[in-house]
Amino acid sequence: MAATTVRKAPYKDFLQPALHRRFSSTATVLLVVSYIQAVLLDSWSSYLWGWFPLGPAGVRTAFIFTCGLAILVLRIANYHVGLRTTGSGFQTLRTTLLRLETYETLFWYGFSSLLFCNVFLWAVPASANLSWITYFSGDRARLNEKPLFLMAYLASCAITQTFNHYRKDTDGLVLGLSKANGERPSDSLKVVIQEVPRIFADSFAGALSAIPVAFVLYYSVLRSFAWGWALMFLRIFYNLPKTNMLPPTWPSDLFLLGRCLQTGALIHFIWHTGNFAFSTFMVKEPLKNGNPLTSESKDPNGSLLNGLKSKKLSIKAFAMWELAYIAGGFEARRKAIYEDIDRQDGPMWSQVYAICMEVVKSIETRIDEYGKVPEASPAKPAAEPKQRVSAPLKDDPIFNNKPAPSAVRTEVEKRLSQIAQSPGSSPASKLSPIAKKTWKEAKDRVLTREQQELIAPEHIKGSFEQRVIKLMEVDAIAALFQVDFRTQFAAAVLGTPYAEPTLCINAIHVLCQLSVHSLAEDQFGNVHRDVRSIIRTLTSVIKKLEDFRLSFPIHWTDIKSKRESPEVDKVVNALKTGLGEVVTKFEPYTNDLRLTLSDVRLAKEAAAKKGEMAEVR
């Protein structure tokens, strides 16, 4: 009988259930916040129905929870890992406005805010004067404009929140690093609870910033349109005036603005809590009951390899994170990697080594290719023109009664064509030497030296840059047009449009930890053959990164001019720490590894921190 083959379960079969559990935790936090807001919105005319979940409070909770759930579904559809490295804020804004996902985000924030508006209007007491119909003299009904302004205000909240959503890159997830053996994973719920004061402050600030947007949006764009449609709809149910004339006064008094701030703070609190809880729970460690996610697989190494070879960055990053945990804190799984030598595509260690080295060498590749002009694709050979069978068509005008162009027009067209064909040249550049000398003498007679310096192109360019640099001190302008060193350097080293440093850091951790532990656990001695290559590669990458940082140009709009990039700094620190551990452990075996004294010396210099450089030398 043929032996049954073990099915290699894909890595996503273990990652997706973990992400579903984390989504459930986020939804639970959001449900608790929704219930608290539903209780706070009650009029408390009855002490039982004000909090009882099976009454009006429960219905309000369901609607408020729907407001937050719409945002969570949006986050699932659009999340990504890594730092956004698309350039200046203006470039990001232009790219964002051309994407369909932007308007999808605006739609769901708008749906959430308008649904919350109806919940709020239903919950507020009659004394708030926010009912749709009011009665003035006798029993004649009139449309109340205040709910319309409140809806416009909440629509403004959706617009400003969508803007901030992309400005702060809310869809980005920041993955963590493997912790030392025995260190407890972080408590995500505790992190969310500790962040509540900041979330409340941000919610109030967001509600306040939407008020000027609401004034512009409602009184300049929506007022007459919303008033007419509201009258048309409510005339079906009420005896309202036939005219659509707008009220002579504005509805936005201080009491209404206070209600707007209250409503805006509540809906922003739902949004901020949902977004922060999602970003916190979704990046929990890739562990289940204290063990790696793939521990329950029939082929743990095969499932892990499937994730490491994934083309989707998020899946590959999670798989590398899990492998980093295995390399540092799970001895049984480490030994399984060393002993797994009968795989179809090669031993487990060889495949892990190739994947991690590819990630590390990609840094070196990006540095080497930075600034190079991409090679043009080879031009297709031009097709030979077919021979004419008939005489060419005449292109003479049918009615030849058009006057010939004037000499002035002909001369203008000629000059314009010359400018178009040689845009970099000026009329003065084509003057003869005698004409240039005459022009210089005339300029010296008319203008003083100071005046000539003022109109010089270099002076005009310098004064323009100085004025722009002063404008860059304003945060709003800098956010749009400043090109900072951090983003550009991270893009050059870690890639674009998103730079994920934890993928590189965990890959370095895997290589170094598996190498160090192989001295005691690798029975077949497969790892030591690659230690020399690991040491030389890490040394080369560190050297290139440090030289590249010093030579990397700082954009003239970056007024701080600091060569700092926290994401790249973390990668450099991981490279130095890992290289130092490997060199320390394998230095007694340099002859067996065929490492020269120069290799060891260069590796020690590369691994040394700033304070240790003098001691190494």
TrEMBL record:
Keyword check for Transmembrane: yes
Pfam families in the cross-refs: Ndc1_Nup
Region (Disordered): 374-405
Alphabetized UniProt keyword annotations: Membrane, mRNA transport, Nuclear pore complex, Nucleus, Protein transport, Translocation, Transmembrane, Transmembrane helix, Transport
Listed Basic and acidic residues bias regions: 383-397
InterPro entries (alphabetical): Nucleoporin_prot_Ndc1/Nup (IPR019049)
Transmembrane segments: 29-52, 58-77, 106-128, 148-166, 199-219
Subcellular location: Nucleus membrane; Nucleus, Nuclear pore complex
Gene Ontology MF: a single term: spindle pole body-nuclear membrane anchor activity
Membrane topology category: Multi-pass membrane protein
Domain of life: Eukaryota
This protein's GO CC annotations: nuclear membrane; nuclear pore transmembrane ring; spindle pole body
GO BP annotations, alphabetical order: mRNA transport; nuclear pore organization; protein transport; spindle pole body localization
Family label: Belongs to the NDC1 family.
Name of this chain's protein: Nucleoporin NDC1
Organism field: Fusarium piperis
